[in-house]
Structures are given as structure tokens and as C-alpha cells.
């Protein structure tokens, strides 16, 4: 990072620190600037509302330490969502020493409007005019000197993604952060006056009359949000993504990972362990039916990881191109019926990866009711990617129809659950206020970094609990504990759901991780009906432990418990109804 070294973790605060706050409209590149200044990896995507919480990092420069905070984007100083509250709280209560206010060169009027509101705080401000390359491609030219004069504070022009201007931002921030220099204060202007003033400034500083050039991507963007052309585009895009994740995942699994595992790894590890331990429980726990060293490697790495990697690959492309908000416009009509705005398609799609970012992402929703609906539906009926991998492993070789059936049930319950919750819960859903970003060609390096970051976090956060869960399965199966636990839930599992008693282990392990409610079924030689029932139960069943934790944190323990009771009840009810009705039809036919 050139002229400064970076320490990522913040410990206690020293006196000599400069506290810096990054502020600006959504999607203007604040997080890119944060990441370039600190060297820290944070989420960066091409849609408003990527950052929903704050990140802090330390910068050391010229012998001084700066603590910089990246917050969610805001349009004004009145919070309309819990994400915006975070930003405004940092500004109002944090009293930073200096503010870096990022302006969007392609949308200057709105940026300046916020700038004036920020300047009322009498805190030194460095203005950063970002996205200059995009402005340039649109034929927008801005007179920086004149903008400086109008704002009464320094303006640095940047192309953050290419690291252009970042060094200057750092220098200016240090200069202002140490001197008591205040931006000019605008006394008590009304909202309308601020808008008028912003408009007048934009007129003054634009060097050309902005007859904005329309690129091919802009034309395609228009096609994506027009319902009649946008709907077929959306279907093609989603089917293409599905093909990559499902088809690609299967190819990776069957052509590369399983052969390596079965032909090389398993014989090698079995030989090794058998040469040390000849028989007994320990041997079985390590390499037996649920062997930790066998299933604990096969399940997470060969069955789940390919889908995780491809899903995050596809998701990251959708995010960085800026396509997701376009999709939001097309699905707004449907989502509104289930109490969600079109813009919430982003957290919803994230739920197909993992429920945690989806629940956190719902912070951009403008009402508590909407947040609750998104979080409940994602927890109830949206399978995470690890669970999808497990469904494909269980049902894929057996019957494609069975997979389609499970996903149809999932869709039906998203719709049904949404309609019911929308009616049941008090509150309101605001009309959609969705900003459509320019479609961009993603930067390959940034994209790969982001995918790697996500896959790595999955490996760190998910693989260990999965291996541990396999260990518990092995222990429970080998010690006969399974039988005693099984007896308790046997009537439910055997009589009502029609599954073998051993399937209880899936229900026990499903508490730890969602895919573990499916994977143990692989060992049981089930009929197609049993597989489908097991999958449907697993689909709804329980939020995994970490999702439960997030629900408590974001809402309350009461809400988390209510959602869990609701999901477990739905799981057992729907699974049982499928089993009982198919069995009845079978009995009548034969
Ligand atoms: N071409 C170009 N793209 C940029 C530039 N700066 C940021 N971007 C892109 O703009 C998008 C938004 O960047 P972020 O850093 O996530 O924006 P943010 O202001 O943090 O957005 P929120 O967290 O949603 O408020 C990303 O796709 C970036 O890659 C720039 O100078 N030029
Ligand atoms: Mg951000």
C-alpha cells in the first residue's frame, strides 16, 4: 500500500488518533476507498445497500494513527432504515475529527445535497469526487476548482477502483484532521433551499451541457427494467446461473472431487489408520460408517464445496455487474404480494447462499415488518447453498423430479408464508424506492478476490462445525446412543414421517447445520418417497445455530424462538402430510 503501513485490528483508542468517517450516498464507492486506504477486505458490490453495518480500520501515516469508519450509504440525515441509522449515529454521536464525504460524479446534485447537510456539523470535510471514469464515459466534465469554491472545502477527484487519487485523499485527510479547519457553515437552509442551491451549483460546475451519452450497456439496462423485455431476460439469466451452479457443481463433484477422494484419499487414509488401530470404536469413529476422516472430508469438500464456490461465483458476478436491482424491478409486483419490496430481492437471493447475510442485508428494508417477513421466509423455506448441495447429493442421482418437487414446495411456502405473514403482521411496506445502478463490466481481479473471500469464510465458518457434526454422528452411532435418543422421537420419525429410526440422527444434527439434516440420510438406503419426505423436513426444519444467533441479535430471543417453533412445526406437518397421503394413495392403488 505504498506510503503507509496498516494495522487491521483496533484495540484501545489513543489520544493521538485521527478519527475519520467515510460518508456519502449509497453505491458511490465508499467501501472501495475504505478498502484501498486500510488494505482491509470489505463487501463491495454494484448496488445501493451493500454495506449494512460499519467497518473500522487503522491507518498509520506520517507517524500518526487514523481510525477510519466505513458506514452504509445515506440519502439524507433522516434515517429510513436500520442500515441508515448506523451511518447517522456515527456522524451525530461519534463526532469524528474529519469526514471524507464521497460524491458521485455521475449524480452530482444528490451528492451535493447531502454534502450541505453534512457540513452543518462543523466538522472538517474532505470531498472526494469519485466515479470520474464513468462520468467521463457519459461525457460529463466537472470543474473541480469551481466545485471547491462552491463547497468551501477541498475536493479530490478519484477513480477509486483504479487507486487513482487515493494517496491525495490520505494526505488531505491528515492535513484537515490535525488542523482545526472547518468547512463553511450554511446557516439554517430549508430542505428546498438546499436542493435549489445544489441544482445551481451543478449547473455552474458542469463544463458541458450534460447531454449524457448512452452506452450499449445503458440500453441493455433499459431493456432489463422494461417488464416485457426484462422478464425473458431475467428468466434466461436465472436459468443460466442455475445451470452453472447445478451442472457445474455436479461435474466438479463427479469428474474431479469424488474420483480423487475414492481412488486416492480413502484407500490411503484407511490404510494409515488401520496400521495404527486395528479395531474398536475409535477405528469406526475415524473411518467407519460416519467416519470423521471419511465423511468429514467427503461431505464438506466433495459434496458441498463445489456448489458453494460456484454459487458465490455466480452471485458475485450478478452483484458486481449491477444486475440485481434490475431484477428487483421485474419481480416487484410479485414480491409486494408477500410484503416485500422489489429491492429486497438482493437479501432474498443471498439467502440461497446463506441465511445470515440475507437477514443482515434486510437491514436496508424500510420497515420492520418487511425485515421480519424476509428473515422468516429465508429461515423457513429458502435452502442455503450447503443444503442445496446436500439435496443434490441425496436426490440427484435418483430422480431429478424429486429435486424439482422439493424446490416447488419451497417456492409455494415462500409465497404462502409471505401472504400469511403480510396479513398477520402489523406495520406497512413502503412503495419501492429503488435506485438502478449503471451496469458495469466487473473487474476480474476484484471479482476473484471477493469470491475467494467468501469461499474462504465458508470454509472457516462451516467446515469445522460440519466435521464436528460428523464426529458427533459417528460417536452417537457407534456407542448406541442413537438408539436411546431415537426411541424418544421414534413415533414421529417412524410412524408419522415413515422414515427409518436411524433418520433421527439427521434431525439431531440438523440443529447444528442445515445440510446435516440431509447428509446422514445418504447412508440409509431410503426409498424415493422417504428421501423426498426427509428433504422436505430438512428444508423447513430449524434455523441452524448461527442463524438462530443472528435472529436473536437482529430481533430478539422471543422472535428467534417463535420462528424456530414455526419452522419445526411446518417441517413435521408438511413432511408427514406428504408421507401419509402418498402412502394412502399407494395403499388404495394396490
Ligand atoms: N468504474 C468505477 N467503479 C467504481 C469506482 N468506485 C467504485 N466503483 C464501483 O461502484 C460500486 C459501488 O462501490 P462500493 O464501494 O460498494 O460503494 P459504497 O458507497 O460502499 O456503497 P454502499 O455500501 O451500498 O453505500 C462497486 O461496483 C465498485 O466496484 C470508480 O471510481 N470507478
Ligand atoms: Mg459500502
From TrEMBL:
Ranges for domain FeoB-type G: 17-179
Record organism: Serpentinicella alkaliphila
Cytoplasm among keywords: no
MF GO annotations: ferrous iron transmembrane transporter activity; GTP binding
Descriptive protein name: Ferrous iron transport protein B
GO CC, any one term: plasma membrane
Keyword set, alphabetical order: GTP-binding, Membrane, Nucleotide-binding, Transmembrane, Transmembrane helix
Alphabetical list of CDD domains matching this protein: FeoB (cd01879)
Transmembrane segment boundaries: 223-245, 265-287, 299-318, 338-360, 372-394, 400-421, 464-485, 532-552, 559-578
